[in-house]
């Protein structure tokens, strides 16, 4: 088993993120001493985490980013992982018929990859995703309507749920705030999870699209048990050991 000083970059950054979530700030020298690595190593970790939108660098360390962030800023967080997920999802998007995308920036990245279709309707509860869909030839973007949810910039509430449930979809592509192998996916608000459940109830298949930073975690409101999910897409190779806990619950891509 690896000692503190021999942790890999991903393990170190997971520890840094956990400490940042707990304390709200990190002191570079203190973290370097605790992890038994050089200050340069920690500085590189913090710089890369800032580039992914996970924290804000300050003199001598870093601080957490608090409060809701704009959609474009959130889309830049772990952008490379989201692009890999979108590339995998692209093969599952039909030429015609109807699919649904939730209001996440992960499915927003999927929306940017769809490309020309032959009469595909895409329903979403995200105004930003709807705007993206409007410019794609052969794609009709449909917005559910509803009330604005400030934490996620999504549309929620009764009207959003009714809009989500009013179309029959071949597939619903959803992200999540967190995913646990036993408890399933969860969201930052009950309103958000209710709209996702309305989409899923009208879809033949629900495809859960999350980057690996969301794994082995829990948020506030339960959305889906993994037995109700047809496929879990991450940026990881499906054989990656980080997915071992999920294999018996859901198919992996």
From TrEMBL:
InterPro entries: Carb_Metab_HTH_regulators, DeoR-like_C, DeoR_HTH, NagB/RpiA_transferase-like, Tscrpt_reg_HTH_DeoR_CS, Tscrpt_reg_HTH_GntR, WH-like_DNA-bd_sf, WH_DNA-bd_sf
Coiled-coil residue windows: none
Gene Ontology molecular-function annotations: DNA binding; DNA-binding transcription factor activity
UniProt xrefs under Pfam families: DeoRC, HTH_DeoR
Keywords: DNA-binding, Transcription, Transcription regulation
UniProt superkingdom: Bacteria
Domain HTH deoR-type residues, every copy: 9-64
Protein name, per record: DeoR family transcriptional regulator
